[in-house]
Task: inverse folding
């Protein structure tokens, strides 16, 4: 399960949303559109879908247009830009699919588009569009959250918001999803896009480490498989860094004993391959 210690929620939308539903007697598919504006920034998300009673929108018809009053012509993305993950369809909320949020804390809003691609254990994606160094053009990148979308929270009080989520690779890597535990993961929006920065937020990672150890003990008490919870604990220890890394692995080896040494080695190989520190 996702750790209960994850704070925050999606940042407040700074701007009003205008929702437009267009339909006609022609054979053309109905058009759905949402526009948000804040300060000098406005964004319009448009797509089509076949059934006005449904919320399944065509991902290959998605178009995002972002306009900055002081940055020249609009920047737009269509279809293929929204399909690094998922099938030809996407489920998008009719209200709030596109948001303007000042993520970087510089007084200018960035653009967020949230999409659910459909299916299980795969499916939440956010696209963020931002300007870097006062460029006239926006850039956009998608982040695949997987099972649980991230929230936005200012973890260190500097005025910038972080994407606070989990490492979804742990969903089924160490056992059934029903008993999966996930280490904390944090992304920050840098000049070149969203970047994983979990290790920069040591107090948060420390809280995650303590929580995942408690979940390991709880799984063991219930007689559930414990490999996933132990892996999450060791990944969180890696994010804390310093003596937490050696201390965490030493604790794992003591608790698992000789009979669990093979399991600990398997976790170590997987985490090292994913870039987690194991020494």
Result:
């Amino acid at each position: 399960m996702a750790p209960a210690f994850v704070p925050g929620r999606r940042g407040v939308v700074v701007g009003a949303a205008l929702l437009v539903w267009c339909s006609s007697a022609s054979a053309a598919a109905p058009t759905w559109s949402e526009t948000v504006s804040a300060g000098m920034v406005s964004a319009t998300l448009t797509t089509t879908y076949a059934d006005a009673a449904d919320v399944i929108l065509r991902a290959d018809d998605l178009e995002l247009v972002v306009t900055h009053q002081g940055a020249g012509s609009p920047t737009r993305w269509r279809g293929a830009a929204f399909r690094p993950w998922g099938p030809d369809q996407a489920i998008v909320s009719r209200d709030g699919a596109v948001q303007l949020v000042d993520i970087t804390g510089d007084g200018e809003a960035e653009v967020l588009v949230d999409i659910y691609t459909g299916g299980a254990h795969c499916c939440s994606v956010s696209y963020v569009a931002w300007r870097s160094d006062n460029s006239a053009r926006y850039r956009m990148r998608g982040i695949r959250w997987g099972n649980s979308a991230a929230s936005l929270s200012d973890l260190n009080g500097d005025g910038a918001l972080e994407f606070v989520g989990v490492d979804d690779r742990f969903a089924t890597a160490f056992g059934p999803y029903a008993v999966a535990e996930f280490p904390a993961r944090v992304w920050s929006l840098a000049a070149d896009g969203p970047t994983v920065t979990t290790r920069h937020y040591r107090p948060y990672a420390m809280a995650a480490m303590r929580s995942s150890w408690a979940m390991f003990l709880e799984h063991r008490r219930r007689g559930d498989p414990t490999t996933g919870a132990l892996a999450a604990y060791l990944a969180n220890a890696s994010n804390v860094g310093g003596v937490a890394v050696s201390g965490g692995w030493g604790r794992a080896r003591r608790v698992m004993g000789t009979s669990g040494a093979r399991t600990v080695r398997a976790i170590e190989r997987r985490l090292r391959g994913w870039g987690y520190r194991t020494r």
